[in-house]
Amino acid sequence: xxxxTQLGSHVSVSEGALVLLRCNYxxxxxxxxxxxxxxxxxxxxxxxxxxxAATLVKxxxxxxxxxxxxxxxxxxxxxxxxxxxxxxxxxxVSTSGGYQKVTFGTGTKLQVIP
Amino acid sequence: xxxVTQTPRYLIKTRGQQVTLSCxxxxxxxxxxxxxxxxxxxxxxLFEYFSETQRNKGNFPGRFSGRQxxxxxxxxxxxxxxxxxxxxxxxxSSETGVENTEAFFGQGTRLTVV
Lengths: 114, 114
Fold this sequence. Notes:
Chain A is mainly β. Chain A is 0% helix and 54% strand. In chain B, strands 2, 4, 5, 6, 9, 10 and 11 form a seven-stranded mixed β-sheet that branches. Chain B has a four-stranded antiparallel β-sheet with strand order 1-3-8-7, with no helix packed on it. Chain B is globular, with a radius of gyration of 13 Å.
């Protein structure tokens, strides 16, 4: 069975500070990992995805994530937070099966303080 | 290219009624997945269709059903609505439904059951 755990349902950072959102996965097979962002009353938008091509994955809006197998982690980072980054972020995992079944974490709401 | 379109955006229904939600995927996408999002349970997978066939189903009662048409448009139906069915229902489409492909999400349908 696959699952992801997001540590911290709420994270607050100052504008310009480092953003670090934590995600740990559990999977019996090599996973595909994703980070999605959701703005209020909107659907989800893909930030980045890991598909085993490279352990450091760069996404949109300056976000990146590093896949660490030894730690079963896929933390999301951004060097400098912007006010527009305030949103809810979801880590997600998908495993082989030939179908689009993605298991999402519980989400982390990011607050950016001016 | 138009994105994933979900209709209606908002819906209010009474307990015991049934409801049908619609999802038009991105042109050329053959896989459509449905998710339920609630504050308490987060994002939960409902089912996934590919070329008119349901390939996988989440852990929801039989009151939740869906179908996909030959043009890849999909509908989901909930019968005998309960208060707990109040949620944001998200539809996602992808080209092939293979686990490492990006799923594009619609803005969702906000269902309120009173």
